[in-house]
Design a protein that fits this description.
This is L,D-transpeptidase. Pfam families: Big_10, YkuD. InterPro entries: Big_10, LD-transpeptidase, LD_TPept_cat_dom, Transpep_catalytic_dom. With 416 residues, this protein is an alpha+beta fold. A five-stranded mixed sheet has the order 21-20-19-27-22, with no helix packed on it. It has a four-stranded antiparallel sheet with strand order 1-2-5-4, with no helix packed on it. A four-stranded antiparallel sheet has the order 9-11-14-13. The longest helix is centred in the first third of the chain and has 51 residues.
Length: 416
């Protein structure tokens, strides 16, 4: 090959090689450019489009998904910001629907009924923003169990009218160790303006009363704000409730076991004197201020239930139809009608096993007997003061009888 031909061949080869290198370089450049420029711009456009398509509505569910020990009063609430609610479904774990209501402004939702304890619920929520774009949120939670919660059974009942001696008495189904926290969640007020103090008899019972009897005609309000209050370690309150009751006329009756008479007073004035028969010398009636806690037109009284048994272990008495009976103590002290005793005992002899008896008839159908009159003219919460029996004063926690404690002693039992 001549020098001219060789040079032309090398130039051609060099041009080809250069072309390959250039092409390879361009190919590499294209790959890099696609990652930073082409595909990057494209992905950014996809993200921007997705953002434009997603709803601005912000849904909030209480409690958080997966919560346990949730409140039966405050759980399952839904709110939305930057949008409105269009659908909310609350169901139990097995699919049973729970009624609820979206607010008028469609910004919130809550159940229409109280939730059940120890139940798992599921919430499904849909909301829309101003552009009509939908947002979705789901949550599941379990409400507090009976083992991890406490409730207080209270007396008197909402809407009732009671006597001036009626305390607010609350019995808790679990022992309360954090008494101060629980007591702070309970308020008792009266339209009379009387100061009300609460007293713990034990870990399960707290009573509240004023220094003197309630003012007649006043209205008393009990508020239980115990939801979420830890009454003992790991045990929480669930009640959110307001109760009101009215105080009726001021009736206080005085039983004198020595004279064997009962003087019934209203507003301090005697309206009737009734002959009675109190506990015998062997079975004296407790002394003290006692509050009527229950009324029965007829009831059974069996001595065995209160410790009066014969040698065979049977009750010393078992009367299945005691008329016009009103309970004065938990331990079994009643003021009641008596049809089995001779009329001559009333006002003359104390013959009972500790109760206060009034002359009455079998069947409790004669309204003219002393027993019937007193029953018909008495309210739960009326006070019966028993005197001159020779027995000890009734224990303040034996029935609703905290009036037998001084005001200083009563307030000393407060946890706050």
């Amino acid at each position: 090959m001549t020098d001219g031909k060789r040079r032309r061949g090398l130039m051609a080869a060099s041009a080809l090689l250069g072309g390959v290198l250039v092409l390879s370089g361009c190919s590499g450049g294209d790959d890099k450019g696609s990652g930073d420029g082409g595909n990057g711009d494209s992905q950014s456009q996809v993200d921007e489009a997705a953002a434009k398509k997603s709803s601005e509505a912000q849904i909030k569910i209480t409690p958080k998904d997966g919560s346990t020990n949730a409140s039966i009063n405050k759980a399952a609430t839904v709110t939305v910001a930057k949008g409105t609610l269009t659908e909310v479904k609350l169901t139990t774990a097995d699919g049973k629907p729970v009624e609820g209501q979206i607010s008028a402004d469609k910004k919130s939702w809550k159940p229409s009924v109280q939730l059940e304890r120890a139940t798992t619920y599921k919430l499904s929520v849909t909301a829309e923003d101003s552009e009509g774009r939908a947002a979705h949120e789901n949550a599941s939670f379990t409400t507090v169990s009976p083992a991890n919660s406490f409730i207080g059974t209270f007396t008197p009942d909402d809407g009732t009218t009671v006597g001036v001696g009626m305390p607010v008495s609350i019995n808790f189904d679990k022992a309360i160790t954090n008494k101060a926290a629980v007591q702070k969640g309970i308020t008792v007020t009266s339209t009379s303006g009387q100061e009300v103090a609460c007293h713990w008899f034990n870990a399960n019972r707290m009573d509240c009363r004023p220094e003197q009897y309630w003012q007649e005609g006043s209205t008393v309000t009990l508020k239980l704000a115990l939801d979420g209050v830890e009454g003992a370690e790991g045990v929480y309150g669930v009640q959110q409730k307001t109760v009101t009751f009215k105080i009726g006329r001021n009736q206080v009756s005085y039983v004198d076991a020595k004279t064997k008479q009962m003087r019934v007073t209203r507003d301090g004035k005697t309206i009737r004197t009734i002959p009675i028969s109190a506990g015998s010398p062997e079975n004296k009636t407790y002394e003290g201020q006692m509050v009527i806690s229950e009324k029965f037109k007829e009831t059974r009284m069996n001595g065995a239930t209160v410790g009066f048994t014969d040698d065979d272990g049977e009750g010393e008495y078992d009367i299945k139809d005691v008329p016009h009976a009103m309970r004065l103590s938990t331990s079994g002290t009643f003021i009641h009608g008596n049809y089995w005793g001779a009329k001559s005992i009333f006002g003359n002899v104390n013959t009972s096993h500790g109760c206060v008896g009034l002359q009455d008839v079998k069947g409790a159908n004669d309204p003219n007997t002393p027993g019937a009159w007193f029953y018909n003219n008495s309210l739960i919460g009326d006070v019966v003061v028993v005197q001159n029996t020779g027995d000890k004063t009734i224990a303040p926690d034996n029935g609703l009888n905290g009036w037998n404690m001084s005001w200083e002693q009563w307030k000393a039992g407060s946890a706050v």
